[in-house]
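Section 5: illustrative case.
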């Protein structure tokens, strides 16, 4: 039995020129959101092992504390934040870093909101420091949003690149407009 890498398996699978152009723009936008400090070494990306599940532990991008945080289930994360044993910033940062690693290996993200998540987590931590309590049961819990779920700040989560066209946002950034 011949074992092929993922890149070999998908080689030659492409859309038409219009689709590829749109998909290229979206991939570049997403790539730009992953900070340089969270990029995996080229050696890992060029020839990843078939079993990539241990890469977060071995790539050196996550501290021991961040690895431990990302191994917690949602209930434990929420309990630790509510008890003051973990900050929202620590939780969002750890899960965001792990998401960046996973995306580089599997292309699992269509957008990445690490900066926005950390900013909101800082606000939640300030509230916790001031009030001594959490805002609600999911205070500081990082989440992922299913494709198709609308967000105020993101117009492309119902992502089908063939149906998208670029639009300018009021902040001067480029996004995409679905179903145009």
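Designed sequence:
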């Amino acid at each position: 039995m011949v074992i092929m890498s993922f890149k070999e398996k998908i080689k030659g699978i492409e859309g038409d020129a219009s689709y590829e152009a749109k998909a290229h723009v979206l991939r570049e936008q997403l790539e730009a959101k992953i900070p340089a400090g969270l990029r995996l070494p080229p050696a890992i990306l060029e020839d990843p092992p078939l079993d990539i599940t241990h890469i977060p532990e071995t790539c050196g991008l996550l501290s021991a504390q961040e690895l431990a945080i990302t191994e917690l289930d949602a209930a434990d994360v929420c309990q630790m934040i509510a008890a003051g044993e973990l900050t929202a910033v620590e939780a969002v940062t750890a899960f965001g870093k792990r998401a960046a690693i996973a995306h580089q290996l599997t292309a699992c993200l269509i957008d990445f909101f690490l900066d926005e998540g950390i900013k909101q987590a800082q606000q939640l931590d300030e509230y916790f420091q001031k009030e001594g309590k959490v805002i609600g049961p999911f205070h500081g819990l990082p989440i992922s949003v299913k494709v198709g779920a609308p967000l105020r700040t993101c117009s492309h989560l119902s992502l089908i690149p063939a149906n998208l066209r670029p639009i300018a946002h009021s902040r001067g950034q480029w996004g995409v407009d679905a179903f145009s």
